[in-house]
Every structure is written in structure tokens, then in C-alpha cells.
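pls design
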């Protein structure tokens, strides 16, 4: 069969493992399992560096990466328990400064 006519012909694929090795995804499966997930979880590096890694002005506060990650995962788990959509959006408050928060909408698919 001519591969050009086969619509399922795979020219290139990029695996989860490759994305983690390249730094595109951050594997958070261990923490996700502690939070109650039964499957591997990875987040984008954009979410990691924008919302999980604390802002520089918050370096003195005890609200570090693990606490932020836990909050995001629990919000996701709660959202997933209430919906069965292929793509789920959920909102979470993110601390950006002392007494300053923003509401961020994230999604999972």
C-alpha cells in the first residue's frame, strides 16, 4: 500500500518520555499518586515555572513548590471527580505576593 494514501501513516511521533527528557513536561506522578491519582501525571514546563515554582518575592514564605503542586493536583482531582469531559478546565488561586492572589484557569486532557 502506498503510505501517502494511508491517512494513518505516522511521519513522526513524540513520546511522553521524550517530552520529559526535553523539559517540555515535568513528571509529577509521585506527588499525584499521593494526592489520589491512579495514572501518570505530567504538567507543562510553562505551568511549572509560572505557577508552581514560587515567585521571587515569596521566597521567605513557607508556601513552596510542593504545597503549590499539591494545591493544583487536589483542585484537578476534585474537578475530575465531578466531570467526565475529555478536556476539563479548572480554576485555582495562585499566591503571587503577600496577600495577593490571581485566579488561574488550567486544563487537563
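designed seq:
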Amino acid at each position: 500500500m502506498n503510505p501517502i494514501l494511508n491517512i494513518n501513516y505516522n511521519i513522526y511521533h513524540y513520546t511522553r518520555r521524550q517530552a520529559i527528557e526535553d523539559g517540555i513536561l515535568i513528571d509529577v506522578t509521585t506527588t499525584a499518586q499521593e494526592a489520589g491519582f491512579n495514572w501518570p501525571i505530567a504538567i507543562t514546563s510553562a505551568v511549572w515555572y509560572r505557577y508552581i515554582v514560587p515567585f521571587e518575592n515569596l521566597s521567605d514564605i513557607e508556601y513552596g513548590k510542593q504545597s503549590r503542586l499539591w494545591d493544583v493536583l487536589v483542585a484537578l482531582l476534585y474537578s475530575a471527580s465531578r466531570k467526565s469531559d475529555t478536556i476539563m478546565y479548572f480554576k485555582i488561586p495562585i499566591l503571587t505576593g503577600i496577600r495577593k492572589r490571581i485566579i488561574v484557569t488550567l486544563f487537563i486532557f
